Amino acid sequence: MRWKLCLLVHRRLRRELEHIELASQHRGSGRRAAGRRGSGRRCQWLVIEVTAFLITVFPLQRTPLADDIMASKRIDISTLQLKMDERDDEGLDSSESEWPYWQEYRFAVRDIVTIHVETIDKAKIEPGAFHTSLDEVSEDLLQFSKAVFDCSGRIKAKVACSGTQVWGAELNKTDAKFAYIKDIIVSPQYRRQGVGRWAIDALLQHQALEDCPWIFTWATSLNLPGKPAGGANARQNAAIAFFRKQGFRRVGGTWFFGYARDGGHPSRALPIEGDAEATQTAGARGFTERKYEELARAVGVKW
After folding, report:
1. Is the domain of 272 the same as that of 129?
2. Are residues 135 and 271 in the same domain?
3. I want to staple 234 with a disulfide (CB 3.0 to 4.6 A). Which of 17, 18, 223, 228 is the partner?
4. Which domain holds residue 56?
5. Which has more confidence, 220 or 58?
6. How far is residue 164's CA from residue 31's CA, in Å, rounded to a whole number?
7. 34 has pLDDT over 60
8. If DSSP codes are grouped into helix, strand and coil, which group holds residue 248?
9. Are 104 and 233 members of one domain?
């Protein structure tokens, strides 16, 4: 009964909306017609808001119609402001933390979008302890560091000479910081309105990360709704396309993507269609890191 009530109200409001829109097409002109069209738009959102309210009040069974209605909450992106909450294990300043080289941040806009980011200050990591240091703070960072860097924090020759070869020796700076996006989550009712794109743009411009010349991520960090028709591969492809549009490019042949703040960095000139696909598991058996170093020297890649 409760669902039928919501459905009846929804259909009645929709009929009223259609009547107003039809009238605006056939009656009057100029200011009167514009006024009717404005009333039609207001009525359209009244349909959504009233029906969504009824669905919220009553504990209804999830249906495609209910999902569509609840997912139609409109938002004006120009009014949003990305705010930051600085966090670590005990709320201490990073200089007093057990891991002074690591900092975790949470960026959010109310209940609309949330981004979790970690930063690493390579200057505060002991020589030769890059992997073990990151292992202490984050499984995500450990996987990233092992895929891209050696134990000294230098980019692997295998990574530098694979893919598009746009990433290299610039990542070896021992006094540099980098950021890693763990995840970005847009609430279901605000999706498909450009909120995710806006959030990444705002993140890249946020002063908390201005001393990080590189921002990295794994494409699966994008939280996408539902089960895409193509399964997990379709979900990952959608996430990859999203980050590529934001200027991220694949690091070598790994599963990870990076963004360079420097507009003159080779990755910034690489078009989306020219980016590489993952080849992380590929490679000849017995092809050691030393052989990759020899190959890198032969092709003139700096790492």
Report:
1. yes
2. yes
3. 228
4. 2-70
5. 220
6. 57
7. no
8. coil
9. yes
Rounded to the nearest 10 degrees, the angle between the axes of helix 232-245 and helix 195-205 is 50
Torsion-angle region of 300 (φ positive above 0: left; ψ -120 to 50: alpha; else: beta)? left
- Whole-number percent of the chain with pLDDT over 90: 49
The model's confidence at residue 192, banded by pLDDT at 50, 70 and 90, is confident
Task: Please give the structure tokens belonging to residue 166.
Answer: 């746009």
Of 70, 87, 107, which residue is a domain's last?
Answer: 70
Write the pLDDT tens digit of every residue in 239-263.
Answer: 999 999 999 999 999 999 999 999 9
Tens of pLDDT, residue by residue over 66-75, are: 554 455 578 8
Report the Cα–Cα distance between both ends of the chain, in Å, rounded: 67
Residues 145, 63, single domain; the answer is: no
CA distance 230 to 215: 29
- Token couple for 19: 């009547």
Asked whether residue 20 falls in the same domain as residue 123, the answer is no
Here the tokens at position 224 are 């996408």
Tokens of 100: 């002074």
Phi, psi torsion values for 119, nearest 5 degrees: -120, 145
Q: Is 276 exposed, middle or buried (0-12, 13-18, 19+ CB in 10 A)?
A: middle
pLDDT in the model for residue 77: 87
Domain total in the chain: 2
Report the candidate in 245, 271, 267, 270 with the shortest Cα–Cα distance to residue 258: 267
b/e map 210-242, b = 16+ CB within 10 Å = eebbbbbbbbebbbbeeeeeeeeeebbeebbeb
Q: How big is the chain, counted in residues?
A: 303
Amino acid, res. 119: T
For residue 108, give every residue at least 6 positions away whose Cβ sits within 8 Å of its Cβ, in sequence order, or none: 82, 83, 85, 114, 115
pLDDT in tens, 90-122: 444 555 568 999 999 999 998 899 999 999 999
Q: Are residues 102 and 225 in the same domain?
A: yes
